[in-house]
Amino acid sequence: MFMDYMSRYHPKAYLYPVSRACGGSRQDIGCEGAGPVLANLPWYLEFLVWRMSCGGDGILEKMYTILRSVEMVSLLRVLAILHISFCLRLCWLAGKCGSLEKEYGFGVANMAEVVDLMDEACGKIVDDPDKLLDDVFMMNVFSPIATRLPPLQEYIEYMFEEKMSNAVGSREEEDKVCHGTCCVHLSFFLHAVTLYSLTISAVSLLPKQQLFSVWNLEIGQRPRQSTYHQSVERRV
């Protein structure tokens, strides 16, 4: 019904592609799904208003209220940032590290080095929560690894500069949109999107308070240890 609505009232509008999660066993699926919901939220809200005007029941009103709340938009934004800055690279490295060792000297044991980079970045964010909204900082957490692995750089360039998706009801090349660029823009620069009646300060406040209170418990209160060097010592 939603796609029929979009095809009728918003032909050639852009919808961030949504993938079906089969099995639901992946722990990063929540982060991966946040980007499409955040990007498509204006269309979802408009559709819900139209559907309620047709005599929808109370669950639609609850969904509308939740999706337009500051808390939900804040959560979606934080999870989308974590996906494009952390999860994409971590998933690629975890899946490819076994085949990279022979040519690039990067194997399973080197994944501990990746964890150290992520741990160090999380520590900096705990000390300065504004870094979460710094696209230069977040998108370059794994740069020391990427400079050693040309295939990783190629993957990131493809995901954020080349991978395209179709507009609603169109297969024409000129109507395609680079959805990686779209997600980055929405995640880090949400205040520039006039479709939301939320200020950047209001959107930023809740994720900083809620997310980093958890990170302080999990990361800030324990001593920093190098996972990579520990793994090397165990192997020796």
Would you give an account of this structure?
This protein is an all-alpha fold. Strands 1-2 form a two-stranded antiparallel ribbon. The longest helix has 35 residues. It is globular, with a radius of gyration of 20 Å.
> What form results from the Cα inertia axes?
globular
Low-confidence stretches: 191-225, 227-236
Give the termini distance in whole angstroms: 60 Å
Widest β-sheet, arrangement of strands = 1-2
Helix content: 55-70%
**Average pLDDT metric:** 75
Topology:
Blueprint: H1 2-9, H2 29-53, H3 58-67, H4 70-104, H5 111-127, H6 135-138, H7 143-146, H8 150-162, E1 164-165, E2 177-178, H9 179-188, H10 200-220, H11 227-235
Antiparallel strand pairs: 1-2
Q: Keywords for this structure?
A:
236 residues; globular; two-stranded antiparallel sheet; single chain; 11 helices; mainly alpha
Give a quick rundown of the structure.
The chain is an all-alpha fold and 236 residues long. It has eleven helices and two strands, in the order H-H-H-H-H-H-H-H-E-E-H-H-H.
